[in-house]
């Protein structure tokens, strides 16, 4: 049998020809796990059918066919009795399976050490850490233009913006009494790329570390941002989670005077590598009054909480803690009066609330000087122009590259179709009509699962409820589409088979059921719902959805070792948290709130239904642009980082979930950018 | 009336908010525009469906009705609201029956006056989203008629009918009327689900479907409706500096993305159907009170207060942040932001003077 190797990113099997299942999934234990998971799903489906006494499929009598075809456009008005049907499985059932995955060749001792993995996923897979993500997503740097940062790409902001001169004050309160987890409403403000921004945003940190004040930072989570080119503080000491998670997180938090006795301000280990030559000479700004009175840099008594001294580049909620206790961020060689350090930015940047990402504000304020709105408007209008050109050229690869910086709302629909090579030709329309005829002729049990799922999810969503009919028109056709079967050549899953009554286990009587081989689970319709936003005609909508499914979404519910597979995403999420927010991870783990148990539902749906639609589409732009789902794991980790301060105060799984219950106010691109490019590594 | 008193209605607000009077005023305004500025200018007032007052304009209506056979019309009692007493018809016979019915019931109730109705050409090709009809509810605040000073609120919502639109079932009220008051009584109405989109969502949706340029011009046309309709009654309404009024405009879009003015409400419903709705209406009221400014915290020169943008101040109001690109164009962007981000708190913090006696923070 010849198995076409459809998936190109995997090396073609060399001689001797690898067995086809290796193209699906090279690791045997993954294949086995997937197979037994499929068995479980099937068993569940079968037992439900037996229980309810309904056949898997039946031909509809003619009157019923007529009725259905009459109300094709308003299937949502039908209220079939679905109380007996239940989703075959929900994401949390699937998570249990992933958690129990083991590599038989790896002895994973349960003993927790700083080197062991603290998460739920116990299989070793290669997943990208922040450096790899940076390398993979160079377009997302803080200095390159992005849709979804300063602009309001969908709804014109139209804000005659607040007269500049006053610093932007975040609305989130810096300190929240424990017990009532406060969910921050504000989002970090990342300026969209403008050439004016000096590439090294962290230079302001440098003067902080005068020889007189060898700083020691509380053990903490994300490290201050040291971009390439600036001195990097090696954290060679293994991080030991401090037993006191109450150690204040934010250096800049007014509640935490750094002169407190717990945090000795002296540290003998001054890394010798930190020398002044690294201070980029480009940062000169002669107009800056270098003797800025607000920054008494020479005084050893400076309380570090002084709002005039911005410490790091982080979001308000990403705790501003710096490296582990052993790593003093000192830099004795830098002369404090160095003319290269634009001290003025300190003064501009100081915010009334000390938990503001100060360095970011420098940028923001700088941009204000240059006309921030104008800069982002400029990028936006240029980007729209470029988008039109890409569409004009009908170049799929260019469209994909373009999508990495986000698609403008008005152009997204055609751009996505172009990236996915989804057409709306007469053949496509005919194909869709055939599928529709199939729906009208036959009634499948999975239809009820689809109905049920739409009613439970999309119809209850205060945004997607309008699209109920579209969802049926797409999902019912999808279940009959045998062209979807092709994706099983590179999917670790295998389409389930059913047998004609009385001929069980005889292969010649086997048929794939449902015809497309995909049994929908609870939340499946949320893969389609956001697309309804883009396409009016069910046929186009269908084409784009099918392509999205066979390229990306199937990976979110099959067990495989693929980098975009759900196992890798979970592992990547946990690794990112463990290595960059160890204190948070440790705290959550201790209170029995494993981060993955909260984030899994987001990732399995690629955040659909959790983010607001405009933000979700911006995220999916990047999935298409990078042809990878990894960004989903990165975002999940970034969400935790963003709300870390609040999460550190919770004491139970329920309150942790409460902190993360509403993601609809998040702005995804700033979160991702800050997490990937402003976390010190 | 004492100096500090404010009243939330103008004395004869019904000139705009009663269906028959609104149409009368608009027709008159259109005529005077045509006389003074020509047809082109007058055509800008063609945003309301053909409407006749019954029984007074019955003959005119019959004439028009016969001119367009097969069309659908809608009958609305002029003074009732919340969708009460509304029905659709296609044949004159139906309306005859109604006349008989109506008179009989009037007799029974011993009322001397026949209730007047308007017959309005029904918009047969409304814009549908996933098969559903919807209309827009937008809020306009008028603080003075002479000179005309009107504010447009950024928030609003689209109300969806719960069932699918089709002209085959003209008896089904639920399809045709998008009033929440009517929808609430529909058999499958689920208050939890809500039938509303915030106007921001709608704007996003439309932009995704039709591109931003088309939608910009659509919203510009909607602005035009507000201004023209207010101008049409500017001379009739008794101006009083103690009065202000918050209007709820009902706008319908058709498939060609043309906005139609359905009616104006003087006391828009402020009951909330959901938490989101509740918050929006609270914001609306709060900002209305800010503009009325009983506390003297504003300068009176603001172009924006919270979610309200000054749309007309004895002439069009333009945006401040005109950038280089638009500077060259002949028309400035109007200072209206319907369906835009409403970051009112930040803005309010900025413009409001502290209460007298309150320390500046």
Automatic annotation (TrEMBL), chain A:
Coiled coil: none annotated. Residues 148-277 are annotated as: Disordered. Signal peptide: none annotated. SUPFAM superfamilies: Ypt/Rab-GAP domain of gyp1p. This is Rab-GAP TBC domain-containing protein. Residues 406-627 form the Rab-GAP TBC domain. Residues 193-212, 252-277 have a biased composition (Polar residues). InterPro entries: Rab-GAP-TBC_dom (IPR000195), Rab-GAP_TBC_sf (IPR035969), TBC1D19 (IPR042507). SMART domains: TBC.
Automatic annotation (TrEMBL), chain B:
Gene3D superfamilies: ATP-grasp fold, B domain (3.30.470.20). It comes from the Eukaryota. The keyword Coiled coil applies. GO terms for molecular function: ATP binding; ligase activity. Residues 16-46 form a coiled coil. Belongs to the tubulin--tyrosine ligase family. This is Tubulin--tyrosine ligase-like protein 9.
């Amino acid at each position: 049998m010849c198995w076409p190797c459809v998936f190109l990113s995997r090396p073609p099997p060399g001689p001797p020809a690898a067995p086809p299942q290796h193209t699906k999934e090279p690791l045997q234990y993954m294949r086995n796990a997937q197979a037994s998971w499929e068995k479980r799903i099937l068993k569940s489906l079968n037992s439900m059918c037996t229980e309810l006494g309904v056949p898997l499929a039946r031909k509809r009598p003619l009157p019923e066919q007529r009725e259905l075809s009459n109300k094709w456009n308003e299937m949502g008005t039908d209220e079939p009795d679905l109380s007996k049907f239940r989703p075959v499985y929900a994401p949390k059932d699937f998570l249990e399976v992933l958690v129990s995955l083991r590599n038989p060749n790896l002895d994973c001792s349960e003993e927790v050490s700083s080197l062991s993995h603290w998460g739920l996923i116990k299989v070793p897979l290669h997943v990208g850490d922040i450096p790899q993500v940076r390398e993979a997503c160079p377009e997302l740097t803080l200095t390159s233009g992005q849709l979804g940062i300063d602009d309001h790409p969908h709804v014109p902001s139209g804000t005659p913006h607040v007269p500049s001169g006053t610093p932007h004050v975040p609305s989130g309160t810096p300190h929240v009494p424990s017990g009532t987890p406060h969910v921050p409403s504000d989002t970090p403000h990342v300026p969209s790329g403008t050439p004016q921004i000096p590439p090294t945003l962290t230079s302001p940190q440098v003067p902080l570390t005068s020889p007189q004040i060898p700083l020691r930072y509380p053990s903490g989570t994300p490290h201050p941002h040291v971009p390439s080119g600036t001195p990097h503080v090696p954290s060679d000491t293994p991080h030991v989670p401090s037993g006191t998670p109450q150690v204040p997180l934010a250096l800049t938090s007014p509640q935490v005077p750094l002169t407190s006795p717990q945090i000795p301000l002296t540290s003998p280990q001054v890394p010798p590598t930190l020398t002044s030559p690294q201070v980029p000479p480009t940062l000169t700004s002669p107009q800056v009054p270098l003797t800025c009175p607000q920054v008494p840099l020479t005084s050893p008594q400076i309380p570090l909480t002084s709002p005039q001294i911005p410490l790091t580049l982080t979001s308000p909620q990403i705790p501003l803690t710096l490296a582990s206790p052993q790593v003093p961020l000192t830099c004795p060689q830098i002369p404090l009066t160095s003319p290269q350090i634009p001290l003025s930015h300190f003064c501009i940047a100081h915010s009334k609330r000390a938990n503001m990402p100060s360095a970011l504000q420098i940028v923001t304020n700088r941009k204000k000087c240059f006309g921030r709105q104008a800069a982002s408007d400029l990028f936006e209008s240029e980007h729209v122009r470029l988008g039109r050109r890409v569409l004009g050229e009908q170049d799929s690869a260019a469209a994909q590259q373009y999508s990495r910086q986000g698609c403008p709302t008005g152009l997204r629909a055609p751009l996505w179709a172009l990236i996915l090579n989804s057409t709306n030709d007469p053949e496509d329309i005919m194909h869709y009509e055939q599928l529709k005829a199939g729906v009208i002729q036959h009634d499948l049990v999975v239809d009820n699962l689809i109905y049920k799922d739409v009613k439970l999810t999309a119809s209850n969503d205060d945004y997607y409820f309008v699209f109920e009919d579209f969802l049926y028109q797409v999902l019912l056709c999808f279940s009959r589409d045998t062209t979807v079967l092709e994706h099983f050549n590179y999917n670790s899953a295998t389409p389930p088979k059913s047998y004609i009554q009385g001929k069980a286990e005889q292969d010649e009587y086997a048929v794939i059921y449902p015809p497309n081989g995909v049994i929908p689970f609870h939340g499946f319709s949320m893969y389609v719902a956001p697309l309804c936003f883009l396409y009016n005609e069910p046929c186009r909508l269908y084409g784009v959805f099918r392509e999205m499914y066979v390229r990306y979404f199937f990976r979110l519910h099959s067990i495989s070792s693929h980098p975009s597979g759900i196992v890798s995403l979970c592992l990547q999420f946990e690794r990112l948290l463990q290595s960059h927010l160890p204190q948070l991870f440790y705290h959550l783990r201790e209170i029995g709130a494993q981060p993955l148990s909260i984030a899994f539902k987001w990732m399995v749906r690629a955040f659909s239904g959790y983010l607001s639609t405009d933000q979700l589409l911006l995220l999916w732009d990047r999935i298409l642009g990078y042809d990878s789902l990894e960004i989903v794991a990165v975002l999940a980790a970034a969400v935790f980082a963003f709300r870390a301060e609040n999460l550190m105060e919770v004491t139970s799984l329920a309150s942790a979930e409460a902190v993360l219950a509403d993601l609809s106010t998040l702005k995804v691109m700033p979160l991702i950018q800050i997490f990937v490019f402003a976390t010190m590594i | 009336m004492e100096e500090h008193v404010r009243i939330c209605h103008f004395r004869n607000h019904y000139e705009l908010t009663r269906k028959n009077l609104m149409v009368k005023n608009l027709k008159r305004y259109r005529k005077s525009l045509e006389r003074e500025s020509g047809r082109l200018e007058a055509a800008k007032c063609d945003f309301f469906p053909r409407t006749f007052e019954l029984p007074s304009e019955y003959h005119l209506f019959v004439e028009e009705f016969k001119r367009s056979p097969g069309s659908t019309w809608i009958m609305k009692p002029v003074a009732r609201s919340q969708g009460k007493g509304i029905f659709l018809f296609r044949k004159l016979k139906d309306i005859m029956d109604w006349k008989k019915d109506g008179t009989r019931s009037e007799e029974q109730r011993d009322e001397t006056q026949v209730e007047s109705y308007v017959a309005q050409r029904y918009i047969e090709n409304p814009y549908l989203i996933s098969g559903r009809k919807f209309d827009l509810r937008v809020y306009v605040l008028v603080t003075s008629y002479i000179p005309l000073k009107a504010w447009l609120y950024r928030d609003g919502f689209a109300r969806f009918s719960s069932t699918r639109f089709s002209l085959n079932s003209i008896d089904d009220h639920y399809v045709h009327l998008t009033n929440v008051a009517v929808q609430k009584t529909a058999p499958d109405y689920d208050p939890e689900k809500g039938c509303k989109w915030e106007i921001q969502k709608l704007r996003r949706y439309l932009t995704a479907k039709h591109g931003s340029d088309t939608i910009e011009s659509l919203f510009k046309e909607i602005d035009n409706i507000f201004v023209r309709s207010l101008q049409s009654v500017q001379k009739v309404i008794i101006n009083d500096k103690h009065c202000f009024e918050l209007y709820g405009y009902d706008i319908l879009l058709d498939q060609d993305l043309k906005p139609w003015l359905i009616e104006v409400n003087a006391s828009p419903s402020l009951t909330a159907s959901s938490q989101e709705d509740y918050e929006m209406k609270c914001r609306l009221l709060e900002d209305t009170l800010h503009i009325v400014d009983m506390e003297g915290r504003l300068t009176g020169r603001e172009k924006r207060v919270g979610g309200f943008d000054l749309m007309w101040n004895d002439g069009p109001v333009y945006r401040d942040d005109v950038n280089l690109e638009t500077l060259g164009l002949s028309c400035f962007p109007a200072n209206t932001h319907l369906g835009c981000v409403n970051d009112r708190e930040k803005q309010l913090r900025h413009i409001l003077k502290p209460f007298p006696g309150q320390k500046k923070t």
